Amino acid sequence: MKKRSAISAETSAVKTDKAVMADVNSKIEAPQAAGSEKKARLKKLKEFNEKRAANTNKYSKFNAFLLFIFPIFICFMAEINQGKYISAFFRFIVKRPTVIIFDILLTAVLFTFIISILKKGWIAILVHSFIYMALSTTELFKYGTNGNHLILSDMKLLRSVKSLSSFAYIKITPRLIVYYLIVIAFILLSFYFNPKINSKPMKRVAFACASTISVAALIILPSFYNPIYKVFAIDTKAATNSFILNEKFEHNRFIAFILQTASESYSNRLVVPKDYSEAYIDEIMNVTVNAQEDFNGGQKPNVIVIMSESNADFRVFNELKIDKKYYKKFDKAVSEGKGGIAITPTYASWTVRSEFELLFGLPVRGINTPNMPQRELADREQPALAQYYKSWGYNTIYVHPFQNNFYSRSRIYGHFGFRKMIYHDDYENTTDFTVPVKHFGTYVDDSTVFEQIIKEIKTSKQPIYLHTTTMQNHQPYNQGEDPDDEFTNYLTWISHSYDGLETFLKELKNIEEPTLVFFVGDHFPSLRGETSVYNQLGLNGENCKALYQQKYFFWSNYNADFSYVPNHEISFFYIPYVIFNIIDAPRDAFIEKMNGFMEKEPVYSDEYDSDTPRDDELDILTIDRVVMDEYSPSPIPDDELITQN
Fold first, then answer.
1. DSSP 549-591
2. Per-residue buried b or exposed e for 330-350, using 16+ beta carbons within 10 Å of the residue's own CB
3. Could you tell me if residue 91 is left (phi over 0), alpha (psi between -120 and 50 degrees) or otherwise beta?
4. Cα 619 from Cα 605, distance rounded (Å)
5. How far apart are CA 291 and CA 106, in angstroms?
6. Residue 311 per-residue DSSP state
7. I need a surface site. Which of 42, 157, 167, 385 has the fewest CB within 10 A?
């Protein structure tokens, strides 16, 4: 029994050892199996790539066809994508065939450049498809958001894409998805058949250079692009007015419009006049200065300039039959002060144009009406109107309840003479406001800005000059009882602004410090492209002047002399001199000269009236003060007037 037990134990041990070895072997075999599976996948991938490599030559004619047809394909897809409807695109082909031919040829040139650089056909197709579809989708969303079309200068705002996304109506539709799937299918097809160009490097470089030179010439050489645009019947009518630009888009569609407006933008770039010199500026400034102004005997009132985002009076369009309740409190403020009409240099967007004119007292037309005039400025202290107030002993303050880096405001406006700048950033959850921040709709409630102004008046030991650009009434207008009724939502929001304005003015009446308030909207609001009230009104380049007329008012809690407020239309940039006249501020030759311009040429805006001739003196004075050496009289100490660029 003991022997058998010993044998049994030995056998059991052997079995146990075998079991252990089996477990070990099974554990060793698992990664081997995984490795085999990986090898199998790699083998399949290798076989697939070998097949693709073989396809390059095997289907050489088909690959040549793919490369030939692609510019036509992506040109059509980009145009269809931004226009949404295939039927509309083909109607355009019938109506304007030469424009489409131009688009195809331009696309072929661009594709030649890309494939010459990348060599592999499918990568070139991928890159080109991404560029065209991204641009066409941006155009689709931009027009759908504010009724304006995409131009290349809009790309300067790419750094602010997070901010821009809060403005836009972005809607991914089944149609949009289908168009993208069609493009993706073409990319996959080219990936499989693997077309390539086998040209030698020097030949590819030559093609790339030729393509680059051709496109560059289409942008910068009028002697080259003018005859080409004429041959293909491209609309080249000069325009900064948004409605005329939109009409040009209807004639040129997306691709030709982008290139032609790039040509126009380059030709319209700021060039310093040949006769610019200190002697010429001195000649312009040779005016008699009235030196009697002394703030009415030394009484320096607070000056509050409120530029209300997208605040506009739609009652100019009688057919809209707008309920009086929306503007009731605005009308009350006008009745307590003095109202008028100012011509804004922009419509629906580019607030910084209006802001430039109010901050500098200079026309954006003097620097060729750029979308972002602050980017044209020399990198130095700038003679914005805040510099005058600072020299007169005012506390100068800028308030904007939005991101400080949008339009590079904090960096650029730091040169404008403001002692304090107050921003609010919802994205970073940071604020410079010292009052509780409330929101109405997407953005900071205007009443929060008004409360901050009251606090600044009460806490400042000096009189204050304060400029604020509000945000409450910025689009999107999709937060109301009916999200799709953006116009009624808009009217509700500006009415809410007037509620806060009424409270603000009541508080000022209880403050003993004399205070002058100027209130105006920066521009009419951005409304959706196809369904907007603007389209319902049938507005176009011939009948859109009302959209550049902004009602304003002056109001004071003391006996201000409003006889200086013009009874006729004036451009935005004259408003600061009206304020100077009301408060009886000291004058220098520059201020005196601008008062003279206001009498001689009260409206100077090519947005409002492109037939108004250029004023060489006004233009060169604008360039002198903000771009060049500032030979004209300035409140800035000489040691700070050093141009850095």
1. EEEEEEEESS---GGGS-SS-EEGGGHHHHHHHHHT----HHH
2. bbebbeebbbbbbbbbbbbbb
3. alpha
4. 12
5. 61
6. -
7. 42
| pLDDT at residue 198 tops 90 | no
Q: Is 583 left (phi over 0), alpha (psi -120 to 50) or beta?
A: alpha
Q: Half-sphere exposure of residue 140, counting CA atoms within 13 Å on the CB side?
A: 22
pLDDT digits (tens, 9 = 90+) for 390-415: 999 999 999 999 999 888 898 899 99
Question: Has this prediction a pTM greater than 0.70?
Answer: yes
Query: 626 with 368: CB under 8 angstroms?
Result: no
Q: Are the CB atoms for 342 and 571 separated by under 8 Å?
A: yes
CA distances from 60 to 56, 63, 149, 186, 197 (A): 6, 5, 41, 17, 10
Structure tokens at 14: 């052997």
Rounded Cα distance, 141 and 172, in Å: 10
List the structure tokens of 573: 């940039």
Q: Running DSSP on this structure, what letter comes out for residue 120?
A: B
Of 80, 70, 75, nearest to 179 by C-alpha is 80
Instruction: Provide the residue count of the chain.
Output: 645
Q: What are the DSSP calls for 53-100, one per residue?
A: HHHHHHTHHHHHHHHHHHHHHHHHHHHHHHH--HHHHHHHHHH-HHHH
What phi-psi label fits residue 182: left (phi over 0), alpha (psi between -120 and 50 degrees) or beta?
Answer: alpha
Q: What DSSP designation does 148 have?
A: -
